[in-house]
C-alpha cells in the first residue's frame, strides 16, 4: 500500500466516525450482513477454553466411575486451549511446547468419535472434562515459523508406550467459569450434552513396560498363540484392562485353559465377541468382565451338552485368517475370519496361522486422505514404511512383510508372515516364498513392477485342474503393439473348459444352477488373463499368448490352473457419476436420466407386491446373493424397498435396462486364417466397430443375441472418447465358420484394424476387464470422439548396483533379489500418500459441471490424461505430479457433491445449484423422502405360505421312512446356535466406521448392503465385500451341516436324514418367530426391537 492510499484513508476518518455516531448499533448487530460477517469470523476463529492439564488414561471396568491416568503432559501448559470447531466438526487440544525449536502439538477429535463427555467437579477442586472416545486422537505437530502441520504417532516416549492401549482424555480447566463457557460452546456447536458425574481419578501405572511384559510372557508360556491373540486384542481394544487380569476369576480361568485348550479357544473368542457387541451399551456391568468369563467357563465345561457343542464347533472350523490394523498410534487385532484362497495359502495350508493380513488405516479406520493443510509423509514413513521393512512382534512371534495382491494395494492391505519349520521342506520364510513364486530377475530394477508381478501369487483364486506341459502351448498375438487385439486373452478346448467347470461345481455345488461359462479369468504359472473356449480345439488343450506372460517360473511340467473368475452370469450395468457426466456431454438429454430413475424407484416401490417382481429387483441390484432369494421374500420386501438406494443420491448408481457388464474377449477368427486352419472366405469375423454379445441368465432361459447400435464403455470414463458407439451383430450366420458362435455372457471384440477397440475404452485390455454394454435407446450416443492415447510412462527405477552382494565363493558380485524389498516397502508408503485417482476424478467432474465447455474443457482433457496415468500407478510406480493438475477456477462445489453428512448450518464449503444432469438427479432424489417409499409394515400372524405348502409332503416322506434319526453331531439347535453366533459377529465386525454405535441388521447382512453413512465410499464398498465374503462362507458351512455331501453322492437314507434336520431347523425358527410375534402383540414393542431377536430361516 503506497503513501497516497494511506492519505486517502486518513482524510476519510472524520467522515467515518460521524457516520458511526449516527448509526443504530443495535440494528447493525442484528442485520443479516453483520450476522453473515460474524459467522465467517467465528469459523476462522472458533471458540476455545483454556486448559491447565492434559492426561490420558482409561476407564476401569471393575470400579464404577474410576479413571486410571496412565500419562500426563509434563511440559508447560501455558497457552494450552481446547478448541471446538463446529464448521469442521472437530475438537482440538492445542499445546505449545518450548523446545530448541518451539512447536505446537494438536490432539484432534472428530465429533463422531466422541462416545461421551463427562464433567467432574467438586467445590474447591479443579474442574475436569473427560472425553470417552471411540478411537484415538489424531496427533499433529506444527513447528514455529512454518505453516506445515505434520502427523505424528506419539507426543513423547512415555506416551508412545501406552498409546496403543489407552486414549481417553482428561482435561483440567481453570475454574467454574471455564466449565460454563465449555457448556455454552458445546450447545452452540451441537456437540452432545456433557454429563455431570463424580469421577475418581487413580494413578496405577498399569501399562508400564514391566507390567505388560510380565502379563504377556505369562500368556505365551501357558496358552496357545490363538488364545494370546484374542486376549491381547481385547486389551488393545479397551474391552479388557490390565486390572481385569489381577482378579481371582482370571486365576481360575487360567488354570482351566491348558486342560481344555480347544474349548477355551472357542469360549474366549465368543466371549470377546460378545464384549465387542455390547461395548456400546449404556448399562454395562461394573463387575470385571473376566468374572463373567469365569461363569461361562465353569458352566460350559461342566455341562456335557455344551462341551459336545463346543467340540462340534471346533470340527466345523475352516481355514481362517487374522487381521492386524496399524493406525498412526495403535495396533488393533481382529479376526479370525474365513481366509481368502490364493496360491500361497493353499501351498502352506497347514500353516495358515503363520500368515496374517495387515491394514494401514487412519485412527478412524478410514483410508489415509491427502490434506493440503497436513503432511502425512512422515507418519507414513514411520507407521507404514518402517513396519514393512522391520516387521513387528505379536504374541511372541515376529512377522515380516511378504507381499500383496494388486487389488489389496488399492485398499492399503498387505500380507505378513512369521517363519516356520516344515518337516519335509525345512525353514520357510518370506524370502523363500517369494523366490519360489517365480523368476522376477527381469524386473529387479523396477520395484513397483516387481511387486505387481509377485502380486499374481496373492490373487484370490480357486483351484481347478492340473495341466501337463504337453497340454498347453504358445500362440501369436493379433495386432501390433502397444494396442494388441488379443492383449491378455488365450483359448482352451471345450473338454478342458468342462473339466474346469466340473471341478468348480464340486467345490461349490451352488454353481450347478448357473450357466456353464465359456470364458475364465486364470492364473497359470507366470501367465495371467482370460481364456475363452475355442470349439476348434480338440482334447485337453490350452493356448496362451506372449501378452499373457508376466514372468518365468522354475517348474512348469505339471501346474495348476487357478481360477480368478468364472463368467457364468451377466453382470448388471450401472450408471455412475463420471458416466452420466460423459453421456450428457456427448448429447444425451438430462430428462432421460430422470425418466430412468423414476422407473427404478417405481419398480422398487412395487416390488413387494409379488414374489416374482421382488426376485427380479433383487437380481437386478445383485442383492441377497449369499443366502438366495426365497428365504427372505416374506420378511425383507419392505426392508429392501427402504435400503435399495442409499447411494443413489451421492453416487448415482442406477441400473440400466437392456444393458450388461461383460468381460471382453477377442474374435479368434483372424487367428484361424493366420494359422491357415481355414480360408478368409470360410470364416466369419467381426469388422471394425462391430461386437458380438449373447446373454443367458439361467441354464433354462433363452439366449438373447444383442443386435443393433449400442454404447460400449469401461470404467473409469473420463475422456470424451471413452464411450464408443458400436454395432452388435446379433446371431452369427449359420453357413460360415465362426470362432465365437458358442460364446455366452461375454462381449467379443474385433481383432482387425490398426488399434484394438479395448484400448480405445479408457486404455482397456482383455485380461479380465469388464465392459459396459448399453442398448438402452435413450442413452445411445450419435457418434464417436477421438479415443485417448496412452503413451508409455516412466517407471519407478532404482540403481541395480544397490542390489549387488559379494559372493566369497566366486569372488564376484551378484544381484540379490531380496535387496529390492526395502524399495518395495518405500513404494507402498508413497503409494498410500500419492494415490490421487479419486481426487482427479472429482476435479474432472467439478470442472465439467461448471465449465461452459463441459467435458471438452481443456482442463478436463488434461485431467483425463492424468487419470490414465494414475490408474497404472500401482504397476509402474510413477505417481501423478500434483503440480501438473490444472486449477479448478471456481471454488464453489456443485450441490450434488454434498455428502451424506452435509450440515447447511455449519459446513465451510460453498455449493451452487448445478444445471447438469447430476444436479437434476441429486435434487430429484433429495425430494424423495423416506415416507414416499415407505409402506405400512407390521409383523403379521404366523401365516407362512412356504411352510404350509411344503409341510404335508415333507411329513409324509418322513413318516413313511423309518430309522432316520439324526446323529447327535448334527443337532438342529446346535446348528442354529452356531449360525446365529457367527452372524452376530459378522454384524459387529463389518460396521462401516469405527464410530458406528450399532451393528449391521440381519436384513443388511442377507441382502449384502450397508445402509449406514460412511465418509469414504471406497471404505464402505470394501466392508460390503468383506461382509458378503463372510456371510457366503457362513452359508456354505451351514449348508454342509445340513447336507454333508452332494446329492449325487448320497443314498436315499442320507438324503432323508438331511431333510429331517433341515425341516427341524425351520420349525425351530418358525416357533421362535411365532413367539416373538406374540410378544409384539402383547406389548406392542417397536418393530426394530422384535426384529433384533430374530434368526435366519434355513431353506434347503
From TrEMBL:
One of its GO terms (biological process) is siRNA processing. GO terms for cellular component: nuclear RNA-directed RNA polymerase complex. InterPro entries: RDRP, RDRP_core. Residues 326-923 form the RDRP core domain. It catalyses: RNA(n) + a ribonucleoside 5'-triphosphate = RNA(n+1) + diphosphate. One of its GO terms (molecular function) is RNA-directed RNA polymerase activity. Pfam families: RdRP (PF05183). Its EC number is 2.7.7.48. The keyword tRNA processing does not apply. Keywords: Nucleotidyltransferase, RNA-binding, RNA-directed RNA polymerase, Transferase. Belongs to the RdRP family. This is RNA-dependent RNA polymerase. It comes from Pyrrhoderma noxium.
